[in-house]
Amino acid sequence: MKITVAETKERMGSLAAEAAAAKIVAAIAERGEARVIFASAASQFEFLEALVAHGGIDWSKVHGFHLDEYVGLKADHPASFRRFLRERLLAKLPCPMKDFTFVGGDAPDTTAECARLEAAVRERPIDLACIGIGENGHIAFNDPPADFDSNRAYKVVPLDEKCRMQQVGEGWFPDLAAVPTHAFSMTVKQIMWSKAIVCTCPDARKAEAVKNCLEGKVSNMVPGTILQMHPDCQVFIDPPAAALLSK
After folding, report:
1. What pTM was estimated for this model as a whole?
2. Strand pairing category for 196-200 and 128-131
3. What pLDDT is recorded for position 157?
4. What is the rounded CA–CA span in Å between residue 214 and residue 1?
5. Of 25, 28, 24, which Cα lies nearest the Cα of 38?
6. Measured over all CA atoms, what is the biggest interatomic distance in the chain, rounded to whole angstroms?
7. 2-185+206-233 topology per CATH
């Protein structure tokens, strides 16, 4: 794991975008396409802004995948991750992406939706996963105690209160009662099977999670600790997020 502490949140996003772009360009050069997972969260604001402005990526050769989505939420809901990615990623690209596999949060059959997503993501290996770390240490919506053993690509998971309160704190929902209790999430193993991971995690409110995930013992009670085991994981943080690190 490589950890980079940038001077500012904006610089963090720029450095993470440079790292991600390098992986995408290399995959396209090697196989003619890149398969990339994208997260939807406040931690991704600066990263996505820098990535779409990069200029060196042929987006027509990129197949994007959706990391997670709330169960029961329609695509036009203000907190929908589909809406987030359409507005902050797809709408700002210089050309259309080759394809994008979204999670249908309001799919009537959650089992069938997970199977559809798995078939798509398993067609070929994933080149890059662009993710963040939650205040409770989650990656995607794999809250503690996370399932480190499932071989499925996606599953429906319960959201713990700390995770749901984070969504309120970030302004996506007016109160806890409005936050869905379950979500579709890419599994831990599926994320870890990505050839490379670029993780961005800014802000002081993430400092405890950053310390626990980057310096703690690998445990499903702190899901992000599993990133320590990936052979090509780059983590980008700003000074407030790095404040509790011992080194």
Report:
1. 0.95
2. parallel
3. 96
4. 9
5. 24
6. 48
7. Rossmann fold (3.40.50)
